[in-house]
Amino acid sequence: MKQFSKYFFPFLLIFLTLFLAYVNYVPGTFLSGWDSLHPEFNLALYLKRIFWGVWQAHQGVGAVAAQAHAAELTRLPLVAILTLILPLNLVRYSFFFLTLGTGALGMYYLCRYLLSQQVNKQTNSASFIAALFYLLNLATLQQYYVPLEMFAVHFASLPWLIFLSTSYLREGKKKNLIWFSLVTLFSSSMAHTATLFYVYFGAFCLFIVTVILLKRRKDILKRGVVLVFLTAVLNLFWLAPNIYYILNHTKDVERARITQVFSDEASLQSRAFGDVRDLGLLKNFLFNWREYSFQKGTFVDLMDEWNTHLGRVGVTGIGYITIGLALIGIIVVFFRKNKYALSLLPVFLFAVFFLVNENPPFTGIFAALRSSFPILGEALRFPFTKFSFLATACLAIYLAYSSQLILQVLAKIKLGFVWLVAISLALVYFMLPAFQGKLISPSMKVSIPDSYFQAFKWFREKDPNARVAKLPMQSFWGWNFYSWGYQGAGFTWFGVPQPTLDREFDRWGL
Q1: Are 118 and 400 in contact (CB under 8 A)?
Q2: Percent of the chain with pLDDT over 90
Q3: Which DSSP string do the residues of 161-216 spell out, in sequence order?
Q4: What is the 3-state secondary structure (H, E, C) of 467-507?
Q5: Which residues, other chains included, contact 17 with Cβ-Cβ below 8 Å and sequence gap of 6+?
Q6: Distance from C-alpha of 311 to C-alpha of 317, rounded to nearest angstrom
Q7: Could you tell me which residues are beta bridge partners of residue 481?
Q8: CA-CA distance, 75 to 493, in Å (whole number)?
Q9: Which pLDDT band, with edges at 50, 70 and 90, does 1 fall under?
Q10: What is the pLDDT of residue 85?
Q11: How far apart are CA 212 and CA 221, in angstroms?
């Protein structure tokens, strides 16, 4: 019975993830659209490009890498394994659902570790509630609805990084440091767009410094320095070239016409969702975004089915109550004086500050930051994508503390199980469309015509030093709409070895 209790909740999380994968997969389709990475189309080609990632020769006439392409090196072995054992169209689907399950399990074990330090009762049940919330919330939805690998890796690795760094700080065991190093290496691919890593690293340093200040022990100081140093060193293989780009080529992105036209709109979209009403649901700019409907021949709301669902009676109430319980968990942590959980509070406030962005009470502060540091304003024009998982992870941990307390109280009157079932069902109902195939946008599930793969094969037989011009180039946006259902930045260069003149690359060098 004890073993059953130990593994029941992890297996339940795995089952829920598998079910989400099953209902969100459309047979015969590829998961592609908006911003996509498709190394599986030509693994050797992709490996070559990211290994020599400082100069991106395939981007038009060539460009110094604005993105940290080399960071993908640690993700590629998993993609290679998936490519060997799965049909090509399942590789990207499988990767995203692996990250989804890994993140949920990480949150479960992190909360169980933190909770059991002081109170052993109800730790498994409370940890499951936290993991379920981490899996089923609007922030996770928006990051997976139009998925990009770097954010999925961030979701998967963040709980494990907190767990392993906390356990090393507390216990000082070398095995925890080794595991932390391995997860840090895997998580490096979150830096494909390096600003995400810089935000994570800043939050991580803030967490470490807070632990050191609260603990005031020399051994904790030494371990904290080791963790920060190790994180920087293990990411140096992509970090050094990216720092070179920042020092020498940042103006290239700022001068790009796409940037000049779009950045202010992006910032305003984020600003529109920085109030308490939307923050209380972890709701952001994608709920105000549009996509092209090939069936209707016009633009429609991207998240129309979710807007309909949130309009149903009681749905938003569940969201607000859940966040409210998480905030109550902060009070529980203060009373229990758990210094590791308390050390995450500055991280949470750090994330909230940027999610609120140019709204009261931070309007003047945020505006001053943007005007004083233009590079910061450009890098964080969509704060939600960079800070949402930090906030969500902290909320999940604090929800575990409040849930443990509630379960302990209700267990005395034999209602603990009722509460566990009730809140679990409420979270499932809150995210019901996800269980109906809408965790990922239906428009991201496309049937790529076989003619594209025939073209990739044809190009592989041609001179690799030739150049490909994709005509017409009548729009500077670099956004493609293909009549067979695809819309997004494009994907053909993942299968074509020759450099491609594509408007998508304008933002990085023109």
Answers
A1: no
A2: 75
A3: HHHHHHHHHHH--HHHHHHHHHHHHHHGGGGGSTHHHHHHHHHHHHHHHHHHHHH-
A4: CEECCCCCCCCCCEECCCCCEECCCHHHCCCCCEECHHHHH
A5: 97, 100, 101, 104, 135
A6: 11
A7: 487
A8: 19
A9: very low
A10: 96
A11: 6
**247: number of Cβ within 10 Å:** 8
- Element at 304 (helix H, strand E): helix 304-310
Three-class DSSP category at 275: coil
**CA-based angle 40:42:47, to the nearest 5?**
90
Please report the pLDDT score of residue 63 as a whole number.
83
**DSSP summary character for residue 34:** B
Query: Which range is least confidently modeled, 313-322, 409-418, 470-479?
Result: 470-479
Quick: pLDDT tens for 300-335.
Answer: 999 999 999 999 999 999 999 999 999 999 999 999
For 34-52, letters b (16+ CB in 10 Å) and e give bbbbbbbbbeebbbebbee
Helix (DSSP H) and strand (DSSP E) numbers for the chain: 23, 10
Q: Residue 226: how many CB atoms within 10 A of its CB?
A: 16
pTM greater than 0.90 (yes/no): yes
Q: Distance (Å, rounded) from C-alpha 38 to C-alpha 444?
A: 13
Cα 396 to chain centroid distance, Å, stands at: 15
245-254 confidence digits (pLDDT tens): 888 877 666 6
C-alpha 343/C-alpha 215 separation (Å) is 10
**Residue 88, CA distances (Å) to 91, 373, 445, 458 in order:** 6, 43, 14, 18
Percent of the chain past pLDDT 70, that is, above it, reads: 93
What is the biggest distance separating any 2 CA atoms in the chain, rounded to whole angstroms?
A: 76
Apex 253 CA angle, 247 and 259, nearest 5: 150
- Residue 292: enclosing H or E segment and its boundaries? strand 290-293
412 near 425, Cβ under 8 Å? no
Higher-pLDDT residue of 268, 389: 389
State the Cα–Cα distance between residues 384 and 141, nearest whole angstrom. Answer: 12
How many whole angstroms separate alpha carbon 253 and alpha carbon 510? 7
- What's the confidence (pLDDT) of residue 196? 94
Give exposure, 327-353, as e/b (b: 16+ Cβ within 10 Å): ebbbebbeebebbbbbbbbbbbebbbb
